[in-house]
Amino acid sequence: MENWKGVIQVLSFEEKRAIFHSFKLKEKKISNGRVSFVYPESHQKGQVLATQLHPSGNGYVNGKYMSAEIIEKYGYEVDPRGWISIKVFSKDEIAKVITEAMRSMAVVPSEEPFEKNEKEISQQTDEPVEEQGITGRKVEKSLETQRMETIEKIQPSTYEIYPGSCLFTWLGLTLSTMEYGFLVWRKAVRKYAGIGSK
């Protein structure tokens, strides 16, 4: 924000805090009088939306999950750690960067392997493969066939980690141990007590 002399006027710590409090954010105190703001409804790995907000004017908003288009559109400078410095931001700029950070954190992360697989499948379907030895003949696999092949590849590993299999293994070991114990006990009783011996 510039005053009438053209000098940038930095918002005070309390003014910045007031802007953050106008959103659904939780304040957390950290060391040396600094505070962070947490976005509890975040679907991303982290919930910290803003950090190191300090009476000196420093403060950073999370830009890790913002799209390249948004960063370019508003001219945000994102540091290597993924944070945007708001030291010289105006009230409107701070409100806008908070809104964009909340939007980016509210997005449910997609499962990248599935997306990549879908892209590969669509590319393979769009671009027919030529079989060796047959020139000019194009062989295409349907999307459904490729999906079934993918499912078949996934299924064996799914069964290996099925939690119920642990229960059956444990029960089997327990019963085996009990049966072995009974056989040892019966042999000892017959040997030392003379039961069953002729």
Radius of gyration: 32 Å
Structure summary, number of beta strands: 7
Shape: elongated
Structural class designation: alpha+beta
Taking the sheet with the most strands, its summary is: 5 strands, antiparallel
SS strand fraction: 5-15%
- Quickly count the helices: 6
- Order of helices and strands, N to C? HEEEEHEHHEEHH
Strand order of the largest sheet: 1-2-3-4-5
Instruction: Give start-end ranges of low-pLDDT stretches.
Output: 1-6, 112-118, 124-141, 154-160
How much helix is in the residues?
Answer: 40-55%
Through-space gap between termini: 106 Å
What is the mean predicted local confidence, pLDDT? 76
Describe this structure in words.
The chain has 198 residues and is an alpha+beta fold. 48% of the residues lie in helices and 12% in strands. The chain has six helices and seven strands, in the order H-E-E-E-E-H-E-H-H-E-E-H-H. It has a five-stranded antiparallel beta sheet with strand order 1-2-3-4-5, covered by helices on one side. Helix 1 packs across helix 3. The chain is elongated and about 100 Å long. The protein starts with 12 loop residues before the first helix and ends in a 5-residue tail after the last helix. The N terminus is likely disordered.
